[in-house]
Write a structure and sequence with these properties.
With 297 residues, the chain is α/β, with parallel strands linked by helices. It is 36% helix and 18% strand. The chain is built from ten helices and ten strands. The protein has helices spanning 12-28, 52-57, 74-79, 81-91, 102-107, 123-132, 146-153, 174-188, 203-214, 251-266, and strands at 36-39, 46-48, 98-100, 115-119, 139-142, 161-165, 193-200, 221-227, 239-245, 273-280. It has an eight-stranded mixed beta sheet with strand order 5-4-1-6-7-9-8-10, with helices on both faces. Helix 8 (174-188) links the parallel strand 6 and strand 7 (193-200). Helix 1 packs across helix 4 and helix 1 packs antiparallel against helix 10. The chain is globular, with a radius of gyration of 18 Å. Bound molecules: S-adenosylmethionine (SAM). S-adenosylmethionine (SAM) binds next to loops.
Length: 297
Amino acid sequence: MNYRHAYHAGNFADVVKHATLAAVVDLMQRKETPLRFIDTHAGVGVYDLHSEAAEKTGEWRNGIGRLVGAVLPPEVADAMAPYLRVVHEVGGKRKLVRYPGSPELVRRLLRGDDRMVVNELHAEDAAELARRYARDPRVKVLSLDGWTALKAVLPPKERRGVTLIDPPFEEPGELDRLAVALSDAHRRFATGTVMLWYPIKDLAAVAAFERRLAGSGLEKILLVEIRVRPRQPVPALVGAGLVVHNPPFGLVPRLEAMMPFLAARLALDGPGSWRVEWLAGERPKATDRRSGPMSHD
Ligand code: SAM
């Protein structure tokens, strides 16, 4: 286990993942009934943006660093409001010094009766999470293998919930594991919302993953994708994707409001591109728009 999220916290991929997650939670909270958030690969919850690790890569400066202080078009500000509120609460208003990971982001959105289970295998990180949330009775911290934890915690007793599966992609086969985890989660908790995160590096592998999900027999699978670089001659991180199974009503318009802006703003090399598309679902029409002429593959 070499992956340390401290090197990447607040980068372009985190921005898309966390803005989408906050929108999902916010939309699900339109109903009063309590919900549970489950984070199988949680990290430490809060990241110091001036730590040695963060300074070494500087990735956050090309992610959240490009949004803070920017004037956002009103529809983008609305769509990203739950996320940006927490970013500012945790990070500071003018100069950003910290960044909320998924556990802290969602914890700050929880209502009194909502609950969350955050799981992290790395012993020191799990201990840090346990210390951080010791006084919040809504939060339970586990330190298990994430794929095992998923089976242990589903279904939640609230019968309403969001599960984020955000592995480090250190080992081959993580995309296959994500697809299996989605089926497992569906078998245990068919109405739950599940979010899968993955890097876009090996384009053929990502295309095969999409086809596999599209043919899985599951309905209501939404794909959200950002590309910040054009295709590279050697495999390199060109973007990131999220699959949202059973997205809450209202998520697509929020994503369609924020993604063109994010693709243009976070692009590193070329104009950037985005997709919000049903891989499987009730909606017949797919959306596939670009902020520039970059090819998808
Ligand atoms: N979800 C976090 C967020 O958005 O702020 C980031 C998570 S990071 C991408 C992946 C995390 O998974 C790392 O903190 C790593 O220590 C942890 N990890 C690695 N292998 C794991 C496993 N088998 N089970 C659970 N966690 C694991």
